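Summarise what follows for lecture notes:
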Amino acid sequence: MSKHKASEKIPVTAGSGNVYADLGYPDADEMLVKARLVMEISGIIQRRGLTQVEAARLLGLTQPKVSAMLRGQFRGFSERKLIDCLTSLGRDVQIVIKEPSRRRTNGKLTVVVA
């Protein structure tokens, strides 16, 4: 294994803020939204000390589907289903529609956890 000298420069590229876009996924924005929703679902499950079987029962899913979702395999889940999971876990979900900033002409979808 080679060691880098302090004087050697290692190229660094700044990320865009969306790892899925940085990796070249065509549906990067959707994947980021789903990832944020799943992170919140996972956090609630952990804080409540639920097993995957208990979580599955609450969410109306099978345990293998909960396991896959918590391991980041959520392509098969719609955003709507993930929102339903949050409401099943006792969270209010609010969708806010507003004008975009002056710098953008297109809107964007973001997840904000309050």
About this structure: The radius of gyration is 18 Å. The helical segments are 19-22, 28-48, 52-59, 63-70, 79-88. The chain has a mean pLDDT of 90.
